[in-house]
Amino acid sequence: ALAQLFEAQKLDTIGHLTGGVAHDFNNLLMAVLGSLNLLKKRLPADERSERLVTNAIQAAERGTALTQRLLAFARRQELKPQAVDFLRLFENVEDLLAKAVGPRIEIHKSIPADLAPLLVDSNQLELALLNLFVNARDALESGGAVTVAAAAAEEALPASLAGGNYIRISVSDDGEGMDEATVSRAAEPFFTTKGVGKGTGLGLSMVHGLAAQSGGSIQISSARGKGTTVSLWLPVAETFVKVQPAVEPPATEPLK
Ligand code: ADP
Hints:
It comes from Rhizobium beringeri. This is histidine kinase. The chain is of the alpha+beta class and 256 residues long. The protein has helices at residues 2-42, 47-75, 86-101, 122-139, 180-185, 203-213, 238-241, and strands at 82-84, 105-110, 118-120, 144-152, 166-173, 217-223, 227-235. The chain is elongated, with a radius of gyration of 25 Å. The termini are far apart. Bound molecules: adenosine-5'-diphosphate. Adenosine-5'-diphosphate is lined by residues 131, 135-136, 139, 173, 175-178, 182, 186, 191-194, 199-205, 228.
């Protein structure tokens, strides 16, 4: 299941990247195809020129078919926000996260059972947790602890958030931490200090993207030699918990 999650993360990243690239590429190929078709009409009627242009048109058509497939794939990656019970979600993936960090790292949690439900894509939130736990593991070479905490965030909201109710979820480790320059770049796509083949530099940018797309926010605080806390503010799914008053069904005449 862990391999599956990693695979899902890879697909997710590819999905986001291909979405943008495929769209631009498709437009370019459409322009190429249009010009080639015009050129074909204006060409002198010699067999060799015609064959060359026809080959080019066929290649461009194969290209547009491919970009259409990529776009269809990327569209499947859209977020599906639902009301999520964070304690349940965390308990469902806890074993998996423990396997990801290994036996030398303790996991602590502080999640109230009566926490309001979040409005977020649950699969993506699981992936975000996995990314944060993998980062904590890498920062804890000689063991240590990772702490997950969740609480209603009535005060101390980041300036970027509008009014409303949010839950703050944080993942902290007492690992090696980051210097200021690293903190300021940590969420950039492809920024990694882990070396070729080890880090992709996409973990925190995925977490950042999820927070932003969910209408929330992210904050990374870290100190070299002390540890790191990544906090996510996610909106409360308020409208989902309100129950409409039952409407009396209209009285019906018994059938005769
Ligand atoms: P990756 O883990 O593939 O490098 P990320 O985007 O998840 O990509 O992280 C970017 C960089 O931020 C890491 O290479 C590392 O330098 C730093 N970083 C992230 N999380 C932590 C952490 N918990 N402790 C120390 N450094 C971290």
